[in-house]
Amino acid sequence: MRLLHTSDWHLGRSFHRVGLLDAQAAFLDHLVATVRDREVDAVLVAGDVYDRAVPPLSAVALFDRALHRLAEAGVPTVMISGNHDSARRLGVGAGLLDRAGIHLRTDPAGIGTPVVLADAHGDVALYGLPYLEPALVRERLGAAKPGHEAVLVAAMDRVRADLAARPAGTRSVVLAHAFVAGGAPSDSERDITVGGVAAVPTTVFDGVDYVALGHLHGSQALTPRVRYSGSPLAYSFSETDHRKTMWLIDLGADGEVAAAERVDCPVPRPLARLRGRLEDLLADPAHDRHQDSWIEATLTDAVRPHDPMARLAERFPHTLHLVFDPERADTESLASYAQRLRGRSDQQIAEDFVSHVRVGAGLDAAERNVLYGAFDDVRVDTAATEREGGR
User: 170-184: per-residue pLDDT in tens?
Assistant: First the structure.
């Protein structure tokens, strides 16, 4: 059975205030084309369909069109809710959509009830585990203790119990939205830590043939049977080096992963992270290849340049994010703040502070006189106040 594993569409999300709806529509076009061209038997969507619980109407319309096209293609789709989705909203109409071959699994009560498909080698049971917020589902699932691992163990116990009651040789697939140990995160995933622990071990999913994971935005294989598809688009500059793909999985007659292929997704615009002094970034011919990229520039100038964003945009018109990280010639002492101030006057401390924020450029004579005058005025006012208080 050939499975197309995807996740983390985040419909409605933007990239540093740049709308991505057209890029998301192009991805969904690509997904439907892949389903048809590569003879896919089932589509797996492992959560975070939307970027927020109440998505914009444009994102809902895009999702609606995608469902219609997948139903028209006649290829079953199994989809779970993620931590960004509203499970209740995403699951509206699930019973009716089942009849069209679109199987939404957003209610924890249905974890042990799979979508059963068949091929020449027999049945394949596909179980959908929506994102499980421990505080909300612990009692419903009978988890032994709080935390992500405990609720996923309880959920998988239901899966294994149902699977054990099915005919021998039934192959199994689980969709889950979770942070599994060994996965590499990026800056664009929402933290799901509970009690200081977010990651769960891969052993939680023992006993099934393939685990289609969502949540982490980088495509990665934790084991041959446990994989993240990653997001189809980059949603932060931490994903600059990601190759955005879907997994095309061939599940063999005995449940083995007979083949796993990464299918590339359309790239609306490449990302680049540039670092250096402003004048160097503007002049270096090595950066010519980034002129059409979305840019995050980290400027290392000792003194902040004038109007840096506008100047960068002249060469890199798609500059979206600017970071300042000035190079420092001196090495800061690790001594405590109190130790560094000991024996120094207020005037010296203030002058050193100015030199610090200017990265070594101290005060000139006129500025030093202004600062001296300000401290002198403060001392006079303080003395006058103390005299008034002592009367």
Answer: 999 999 999 999 999
